[in-house]
Design a protein that fits this description.
The complex is a heterodimer of chains A (214) and B (300).
Chain A (H helix, E strand, L loop, with lengths): L1 E6 L5 H15 L3 E6 L8 H8 L3 H7 L3 H10 L20 E7 L6 H9 L7 E8 L5 H18 L3 E9 L8 H12 L11 H15 L1
Parallel strand pairs in A: 1-2, 1-3, 3-4, 4-5
Chain B lengths: L10 E3 L4 H17 L5 H8 L3 H13 L3 E3 L9 E2 L2 E2 L12 E4 L2 E2 L6 E4 L2 E5 L3 H4 L10 E7 L6 E7 L2 E6 L4 E4 L24 E3 L2 H9 L7 E3 L1 H11 L11 E3 H6 L7 E4 L3 E4 L1 H4 L1 H10 L6 E4 L2
Parallel strand pairs in B: 15-18
Antiparallel strand pairs in B: 1-18, 2-5, 3-4, 5-6, 7-8, 7-9, 9-10, 10-11, 12-13, 12-14, 16-17
Helix pairs in contact in B: 1-3
Classes of the chains: A alpha/beta (214), B alpha+beta (300).
Amino acid sequence: MRMLVAYFSCTGYTEELALAIRAELESRGHEVVVEKIKPAVTYSWLREAARDFPRYPSIIFSLVSASWKEHHMRTYNQVEEDIQALRYPDISEFDRICVGGPKWAQMSYPVARYLQIVRGIRGKKVGTFCTVGGPPLPVFEEEFVFEPMRRLLERMGAQVVGRVCISSAYHAARLMPLFRLISRIRFHRPIADFLLESEYGKTGVKDFCTAVEQ
Amino acid sequence: MAKKYGDTVLFRINRFSDTTKQIKRFIYESVLSTGAAPKVAEIVEEFKLPEAQVRESLHDLQGGIIIALQNKDHTRIDEFQGQKLADDVVLPELGEIYYARPFANFKTQHRIYVDGEQKWYGECPVECTTISYFFPGKEVTVRSIAHDTGEPIEIVGRDGELLDYSPRSLRIYWGKPFGAWLSTKGHEGDFIFTCDSNYFFSSEKGYNEWKRSRPHEKGQIFTPVMINHLLRIFNYGHERFDFQYHFPLLEILLAAFTTGIIRLYMVVIPVPNPFFLSMVNFFRDLYKNGYKLFLEVKPW
């Protein structure tokens, strides 16, 4: 199959994940093309955070109330970032699409813009992947990035067939000590157990590729 | 560099359904790849939906000023915005897509070049100033003809920004104030008529001479910079799946003078431009003609 792996990477961790996915898919005999999503402006975490800051309290409430979380997901206005010209603005020629980026408050802004403007996605089977700063917490990390992606893709007529979330053990706002503690409390494991090179990471990439292939 | 998209929506007045958005995306994908919008029958076949439902979505898109559908008045025209149409032009049939704004679904004098390739046609001099939104990261050139002298004009843009235009004295005539869009006698509810008298003028002098013989014309002229600034506020993100027209209040306020929303009377007294104030009448006329208003109001 001809597949496209489109990704945005801020510090290089998501790029490593995207390339690992490409290598795995190629080893299974697929033709894989990579599209790097490049923002039109230089990254500044302070500016990016400031754009979404008014909704941060809502994210925190969502962690304690399922109904608030549903309300938050429904009403959240995804922030977007202008991106540079794409090599493949029309992806209708590909059989499968894998798209991903780091998790910011929810989707990373360049990925959100990519999904909004890329052509030919209707009817496609899509795999979504992301890197997160902390351990793969089911709600705060995974659901907050994958659920908006799934909703947007389904609204556009695409079908999400697989997903993988790997920890990068990096946080722009220097929150790693907190995440390390959470990893110990929640999973009784160090955060290193959720990195790409860990067993969790390798199995995650393999399972993701299997799901995308179906 | 690129302008930011207003992230916070204060409130929405109606929202396109997901089916309508998918149909809109299908139309624009077809326009961008082939230069032509799909026929209604093709949309019906693609989405496997009843024609009535597709027509309802197209009706909403027309009300949202995204597309315009062919009507009886425009099935047989020889001229388009003051210029004779080419002999081989094929006009859309009744009920088919006439404009997928800012593109026209037939050959017009507004030719659009992207990387030297030309298969698209613009629908209106006003919208031509920000047409580059649809080709992210690429330099887009619009070549057309001045209404007064017939001389060639050129507008160059990238990502919605105006990079250059010639001649430097170029002016854009916006023929119909918002209040006259849908309520002009004989053209009630006609979304094509709104752009019929928008022209490029080679200079303000040329416009003044043209205007002298047409004192009853209610349009106004703007510089390409003013129009570009205005449309970058309202049209920003037009190429996005979720786009519908938006009203970023702070941006409008800050750009009120540079876009001509407020003009200076006697050089010092700021007076709101009635051309834009009549937008309230347009909103009223939308409902009168059986359309819904699709609008997002944002704080900035």
